[in-house]
Design brief:
By secondary structure, the protein is α+β, with helices and mostly antiparallel strands. A hairpin with a 6-residue loop joins strand 4 (37-38) and strand 5.
Length: 736
């Protein structure tokens, strides 16, 4: 038994678990201090060892996963049980349906064969379900496991008695030479339940994949400079506040700190969303796990371990994933009442037949009570939702929309607010050449050609955008005769005998070049969100070059479709206010939040949820991960980071926002289909349970025979499956 304890620190606790809270130690990124396990559906359940939830029976999972938790032992166990016993289930089912037609052996012998074949399915493969069913009774928390345990247990026990001691049953129960048995019902329910559990555990493992992706970004070692000037590589866990660390070109910054020597451009896009590398000089802050692109830096560490920005994002993602209001809670409550009702009907049936039925009345009572439990076993009910989900996810995947779980499909249709990141979501997320503005005596092509010729020696992403644009236009580039990078402000050199300088206003001032003649044009380009560089030739201003992050071609159409569907669209970006407002104005977005950190996006989502809105968040970066996890529906761009995709419930493979409107249509159709399926399943139970209880016996003489039960079960499941498959044929398009 699980020694489960409840705490009051479940919903909205701090970033780490209380008590044996998980501190993320870098290096091997193990969770220290002992792992805490919790239920995804009932976060108030917390314990220091694996087990199952006493409320709903779900498998508990670590609050904070580690990179070492690669294998899920329960998934491996269920997979093994399913595949080893599936052939037995298939054979038992085939015998039950066609055995009497084949006539290979007597029906009494067939019952023994079915017993032997179904024994491992029920007692070995189904054992975890009986344990959960028993726990639900002990904890007085009836759920679907109670019903599955009772139904399959009753079907199997009754069938064993019918096979081993058929003489205890009245003659009216003998059909085709044997007392009817339900081995195939018990085996099929267990195999279907195992399959459902496997699919669920695989889907749930993806929630921890977001955190593992983040943990995987952290470098394993840092290069520490000792007091005597020597250097050594040390594990990240050995880095302390105040240590001097060297970060070479192409390496990741190990921890948060400040630059003490050198200069470089650092790519912070994965954390801030800024598409352009940020120049770093002594005194500038560095964020752990960001990428040093060009120059060498020496830094002083300021925040290590769980204090770094990346660790805080990890903790925010973990908490947001845990604090969701689970869709299953209502299903648990309904299942609880359903279980109580079925058990009550079975008990009433037993005593009703025992006291008032024909002789042998108590045998009739036992058989009909068992029949109630068997027919109430949620076979069609179990198929109703997963079938719709499987068909819908398959259909959506064909259109480049990946749903990670049923909750995403459930919630998307209710969304009324969409928060969108800018970089990589509304825009391409990669700098591209916008235009060249020539000064007097130069042409735009000449300005681009000269700048690209000089930039061939640079590895900066802005330089790459300029060189690529020149080559696309077929401009012939000269090889630079000399090249020098002026840290953080630009580059200079000689091309075809002319002295060139390309960079910001600081470089122009250093070179004594006046920029007044194109000042208004430069300001206008910056207001549009572009990065502006000045080109000087032989000490004179030759022109401006603008590099910007272009809006995706599909974005305007996507936003129009979303607004037409009644969604309120808000832009939240780590970019500066000027750039954010420029892009928003171009796209007709009224609400803009610029210069927002990952925690600010998370606060924005929570605030809107607190106002009663159902919030979707669309983003592509690590900086979006906490908000993606907290939102009712997180939507990641397939062109973005793995962390964003793992934190989100929906991934748009092509990074095309038009997929959101399409996914919403699929969500609406799927939920409607699910409700129809549940209707079929409940009608089946509503008709089947009274028949099993023998309510029609006084009027018709009908009792539940194996043939009727098998036919009813089959028809119910077939109706659910065929209705779900209708989704495949439906034309689901926005505004269609």
């Amino acid at each position: 038994m699980n020694h489960t304890h409840h705490t009051h620190a479940s919903h909205g606790t701090g970033t780490a678990a209380p008590g044996a809270a998980a501190e993320i130690s870098h290096g091997d990124t193990a969770v220290t201090g002992g792992a805490i396990y919790t239920c995804p559906m009932h976060p108030q359940i917390r314990q220091d060892h694996p087990g199952t939830c006493p409320i709903c029976g779900m498998t508990l999972e670590p609050v904070m996963p580690s990179l070492e938790d690669d294998d899920n032992p329960e998934l491996a166990s269920f997979t093994r049980r399913f595949w080893w016993t599936l052939p037995l289930t298939v054979v038992v089912t085939a015998l039950a349906m066609f055995g009497h037609q084949l006539g290979w052996f007597g029906m009494a012998t067939q019952s023994w064969i079915e017993l032997v074949l179904s024994l491992p399915v029920v007692l070995w493969a189904g054992w975890p379900f009986f344990v959960r069913g028993a726990q639900s009774v002990i904890h007085r928390s009836p759920n679907m496991w109670t019903l599955i345990g009772l139904g399959t247990g009753a079907a199997f026990a009754y069938s064993v008695v019918a096979t081993v001691a058929p003489g205890v049953f009245p003659d009216s129960f003998v059909s085709m030479g044997r007392v009817a048995v339900y081995f195939e019902a018990a085996a099929v329910i267990i195999s279907l339940t195992l399959l459902g559990q496997m699919l669920e555990l695989k889907a749930r493992s993806q929630t921890s994949a977001a955190i593992k992706s983040l943990l995987g970004l952290v470098p394993k070692t840092a290069r520490r400079i000792q007091s005597d000037g020597t250097e050594e590589d040390v594990p990240l866990t050995h880095v302390h506040v105040g240590d001097s660390l060297r970060v070479r070109p192409g390496e990741k910054v190990p921890v948060d700190g400040v630059v003490t020597e050198g200069s470089s451009a650092v790519d912070e896009s994965m954390l801030t969303g800024e598409p352009l590398p940020v120049s770093k000089r002594p005194g500038d802050k560095l964020i752990g796990a960001t990428l040093n692109t060009s120059g060498a830096l020496v830094m002083r560490s300021e925040r290590v371990g769980a204090q770094t920005m990346l660790s805080q994002i990890v903790q925010m993602v973990a908490q947001a994933q845990r604090s969701k209001a689970p869709m299953q809670r209502m299903a648990d409550q309904v299942a609880g009442w359903f279980v109580m009702a079925v058990v009550a009907i079975a008990v009433l049936t037993f005593f009703g037949w025992g006291f008032f039925g024909p002789q042998p009345s108590w045998v009739y009572g036992l058989i009909n009570a068992v029949a109630v439990l068997i027919i109430a076993c949620p076979c069609a009910l179990g198929l109703a939702t997963p079938m719709s989900i499987m068909v819908a996810t398959g259909k959506a995947a064909g259109q480049g929309i990946l749903f990670r779980d049923a909750a995403a499909i459930e919630h998307l249709r209710k969304v009324d607010v969409l928060i969108v990141d800018k970089t990589g979501t509304l825009t391409a997320g990669k700098p591209a050449f916008d235009r060249a503005v020539p000064a007097a005596g130069f042409s735009a092509d000449e300005v681009l050609r000269l700048a690209a010729s000089l930039d061939q020696g640079s590895e900066h992403p802005l330089a790459e955008a300029i060189v690529s644009a020149a080559r696309e236009r077929g401009l012939s580039l000269d090889k630079p005769e000399s090249f020098e990078s002026a840290s953080g402000i630009g580059v200079s050199g000689r091309v075809a005998g002319r002295a060139l300088a390309l960079g910001n206003t600081a470089l122009m001032a250093q070179a004594g070049v006046a920029v007044d003649t194109l000042l208004s044009q430069a300001e206008a380009l910056r207001a549009e969100g572009a990065s502006v560089m000045h080109l000087a030739v032989d000490g004179q201003l030759a022109g401006l070059l603008a590099v910007a992050d272009p809006v995706k071609a599909s974005t305007p159409e996507a936003l129009a479709a979303l607004k037409a569907a009644g969604l309120r669209v808000i832009m939240a970006t780590g970019d500066g206010q000027t750039t954010a407002k420029a892009v928003a104005a171009r796209l007709g977005i009224d609400e803009v939040h610029g210069e927002v950190k990952p925690a600010d996006k998370l606060v924005l989502v929570k605030r809107l949820q607190g106002e009663g809105h159902v919030v979707a968040m669309a983003g592509d970066g690590i900086n979006d991960a906490p908000a993606l996890a907290q939102a009712d529906v997180g939507i990641a761009m397939g062109t973005g980071t793995d962390v964003a995709m793992n934190s989100a419930q929906i991934t748009l493979v092509k990074g095309d926002l038009r997929g959101i409107a399409q996914a919403r249509i699929i969500s609406q159709a799927t939920i409607a289909n699910m409700k129809q399926n549940l209707g079929f399943a409940f009608i089946y139970n509503a008709l089947g349970v009274p028949l099993a209880a023998g309510l029609l016996y006084p009027f018709t003489g009908w009792l539940l025979s194996p043939m009727i039960a098998a036919l009813a079960m089959s028809l119910s499941s077939v109706s659910v499956i065929s209705n779900a498959l209708r989704l495949r044929a439906q034309r689901l398009r926005p505004n269609a």
